Amino acid sequence: MANENLNTTASTESQSTSTEDPTSEPLVEQSISVDSERSHTTANADTVIESRNLDVYYGETQALQGIDLAIPENQVTAMIGPSGCGKSTFLRCINRMNDLIDICRVEGELTFNGKNVYDDDVDPIALRRRIGMVFQHPNPFPKSIYDNVAYGLSVQNMDVDVDAVVEESLKKAALWDEVKDQLDKSALNLSGGQQQRLCIARAIAVDPEVILMDEPASALDPIATSKIEDLIEELAEEYTVVIVTHNMQQAARISDTTAVFLTGGELVEFDDTNKIFENPDSQRVEDYITGKFG
Ligand SMILES: Nc1ncnc2c1ncn2[C@@H]1O[C@H](COP(=O)(O)OP(=O)(O)OP(=O)(O)O)[C@@H](O)[C@H]1O
Ligand SMILES: [Mg+2]
């Protein structure tokens, strides 16, 4: 599965990112607690997505500047930074959702398993099956729960046992027990948190490798948020998860690696999450994390 073709000659590329310094003391007085149960080391992880000197423009306005970033496989990578710094723009570059914005122009390279997703021979529909996306506001279709999860299977012409895939996807999204007796009911009757887990089930159903999430819990109450956070940690055992969040505690709790973007579309620091939250190299990152600006 890992190297299924994108209608291309995809190749795999392995690369490691930096290791944490276990001796470093937290610099930040009011440091945000990091879940020490998680390993947070990217030293041995393969790179699944990598951007090199990525610039993105909307018309004349540059939204991202020379982004170099290597996202490790089967981990949670968080993207944080103030509003307008380009987090969603970067996320949408990964599965070419920016193609849908007429004035958006991407320069530089963004590879998935070593293949530049902007090469002419890449089919964006095939790419989006392998790199799924979940948005801030749950967006189920006005269809039954079952049809929502099964939707991508027919769009992608996947020859699978649909009943089995629907059940398995709802189980992986921690929703099965709540909906198994009402699969034919409208998805719009579910609560916001259930709808978001349904959208995650819909993304999982087509068997992606990567799941992109743009503030997936920001419209939810604390209990629904906590369910989504638990789910993300479970998903990372099987998938690579990239999550944009404004909630720094959330980034610290659930991610292994964190990218900090700052105003102007600049990636200022990218490292293990505990390094970013306890001992960042950049003063600007420390100021942002401690709430001095942003
Ligand atoms: N469709 C668009 N057309 C024109 N400009 C856009 C478009 N989408 C984003 N931009 C601009 O690109 C820059 C980055 O926006 P983006 O949405 O990526 O930021 P963000 O970090 O996700 O912000 P937020 O935290 O508020 O969601 C902003 O200056 C924004 O105005
Ligand atoms: Mg955004």
Quick synopsis:
The protein is α/β, with parallel strands linked by helices. It is built from ten helices and ten strands. Strands 6-7-8-3-9-10 form a six-stranded mixed sheet, sandwiched between helices. Strands 2-1-4-5 form a four-stranded antiparallel sheet, with helices on one face.
Question: Features of this protein?
Answer:
294 residues, alpha/beta, Rossmann fold, six-stranded mixed beta sheet, 10 helices, 30% helix, binds adenosine-5'-triphosphate, binds magnesium ion
Based on the coordinates given, report the CATH architecture.
3-Layer(aba) Sandwich
Helix share, percent: 25-40%
CATH superfamily: P-loop containing nucleotide triphosphate hydrolases
Number of domains: 1
Helix vs. strand class: alpha/beta
